[in-house]
Amino acid sequence: MPLIESTFPASKRCPCGTGLTYSECCGVYHGSTRKPAPTAVALMRSRFSAFVVGDAEYLLRTWHPLSRPERLDLSDSPIRFYRLDIHDTVAGGPFDSAGVVEFEAFYKGTSVGSQRERSRFERGSDGVWYYVDGDVS
Asked: Could you say which architecture CATH assigns to the domain 22-64+78-136?
């Protein structure tokens, strides 16, 4: 799968809500950089931003192989995510092998609302964090 560089402005605030610019925050994980997220919450934030900027390749690359879909098309999505709130984290730090991040992602478009999810993450044998699955409420 070819790497696609984001057209999201590098100097704009990162969609994940840290207050940093995209190039200082999630942009370092997307595209050709392939820098791995150091924690489960950093991966969660970068995956949210990938949904915002349309980086399906990054989402697939950071999805655990046992639960990853074969393909992901974000081009025709009727909604647009615009805000992320992190509600809880359990483990998922630099020295952990698993973690949980509970978040709420707000969207608008053909419908307006939010998705609250408690997501599981695992660090692979390669030392990289992967999204495993989540319970949506």
From this structure: Roll (3.10)
